[in-house]
């Protein structure tokens, strides 16, 4: 299923990594530590990969302690909450997720979570409810004052957030939302 292995004009290997290459990279890093990634292909005997390829292979697949496999519902909820605050800054999100790589989180977001939010009536980029009606009125209470937009009346009881995203995230955190879909 993966890409076929081939060599570029400089003799560097491209494509899938073999188990033998993984062992060479692990052995080199265990002996010498993580140093200048560009120098690894020259110093690691028999490893004909570019430095970037070595770095990405180590960080995303071979590094000890990486958690691979299915995401738990708690991890998914945490990703959604962090994405609402940080956006597509996957490395920043990964810092808050124990032993998950930024690449793994990004792939899970794009393949699963974005679709899950859309199915539940939430815009995955703004984290606002998707409304198919022409107009909606939402009242937001900010520090004792309120503002209203035009359309049918819908009350929001969040005290400090002008976005529905923050309200939804607070409700999710409190466990008071049974469904992510907002009533019409």
TrEMBL record:
Domain HTH myb-type: 9-62, 63-117
Myb-like domain residues: 9-62, 63-113
Keyword line: DNA-binding, Nucleus, Repeat, Transcription, Transcription regulation
Pfam families: Myb_DNA-binding (PF00249)
Intracellular or extracellular location(s): Nucleus
Alphabetized CDD domains for the sequence: SANT
A Gene Ontology molecular function term of the record: transcription cis-regulatory region binding
Entry-linked SUPFAM superfamilies: Homeodomain-like
GO cellular component: nucleus
Assembly and oligomerization: Can form complexes with MYC2, MYC3 or MYC4.
Full protein name: Transcription factor MYB106-like isoform X3
